[in-house]
Amino acid sequence: MIFNFFLINLIVIILINRLKIKAINKILLFFISIFTFNLHISDNYIIFIELLILLLCSTHILVNIYTVKYSSVRIEILNHIINKKKYDDNKLYLDRKNRFKKNNKSLMKKEIFSFLNVIIGFFRCCFF
Amino acid sequence: MYLHLTILNFSCLFFFQIVIFKFLNYKKNWHYISLVILVIIVYVLYSYFDIKFNYIELLDYLFFNLIILINYLIFLTIVFNGSPSIFYLKNQSKKLFIKKGFVKNRVKLMKSNKLISRNNKITPIGYFALKITNFFSVLFLKDDI
Fold first, then answer.
1. List of long-range contacts for B93-101, beta carbons under 8 Å, 24+ apart
2. A12-31: pLDDT as tens digits
3. Predicted confidence (pLDDT) per residue in A20-59, tens digit
4. Is there a contact between B78 and A100 if contact means CB atoms under 8 Å apart?
5. B86 belongs to a structural domain
């Protein structure tokens, strides 16, 4: 059940990714369609929660695939080495500054990072 | 079916992580440590409660735990390595941002992970990382507009 549900998640996102729409809309479409499917197939609330956790995990992995491609510092460094350019903290600072401007239409919005900051604060408090 | 046991597994993992990372102040190889602790917990609790999953159920249960662990470790990367975006959100000072040295720190990590060589050239592992990143993005989630 769990493995099959995860495979369905992957197949659905591969199909949705073919659409010519923004990444944030793809994620929303994916989440709503799989959530509806989950409501339909779950026999009881335990299975529903298990599949919901799996859906959240799938969404988190997909968002990470996106952020690694479009925002990872390591990938930026590798791309700059290929293009024989230098990547430094100044460029990184300007990139992050642009990210939090109001006209930013990418998946990486200020609100998402503000929310993440709260959770990270809790974990840093526990582990550091 | 696996929910309660999985919640218990990860609660125990969180408890042992606090003990090791905070009280023993040992943070080296935190991802391997987390993986090993979870494997031990899953084995001990499964034996302790004398659960009798059939073959398919057992694989599903292990897969469920593995997926949650992967997500948890991806998330913990931000906690342990820090995120430039979150640093900027908390403090917009350019001077402090540059002083923090995110790029320098990542270059150091990339050298230890053999993504780039000592003289800043991309290694075959680095090329592979770039290709796999592109492949996954094109397959699963790319920005079209």
1. B94/A90, B94/A93, B97/A89, B97/A92, B97/A93, B97/A96, B98/A89, B98/A90, B98/A93, B100/A89, B101/A89
2. 999 999 999 999 999 999 99
3. 999 999 999 999 999 999 999 998 999 999 999 999 999 9
4. no
5. no
Q: Same domain for B11 and B61?
A: yes
Domain that holds residue A85: 73-127
For residue B51, the SS3 value is coil
Angstrom CA distances, A3 to A54, B5, B10, B51, stand at: 10, 17, 20, 20
Domain count, chain B: 2
Amino acid at A62: L
Q: Give the Cα separation of B19 and A127 in Å (integer).
A: 8
Expressed as residue numbers, the domain containing B17 is 3-81
% of chain B at pLDDT higher than 70: 99
Chain centroid to CA A19: 18
pTM score: 0.91
The answer, yes or no, to whether residue B14 has pLDDT greater than 90, is yes
Q: A 25-54 residues with CB below 8 A of B?
A: 26-27, 46-47, 49-50, 53-54
**ipTM for the complex?**
0.90
User: Counting runs of H as helices and runs of E as strands, what totals does chain B give?
Assistant: 7, 0
Packing angle, helices A110-127 and B3-17, rounded to 10: 70
Residues of A in contact with B90 (CB under 8 A): 117
The structure tokens 């993992």 sit at B13
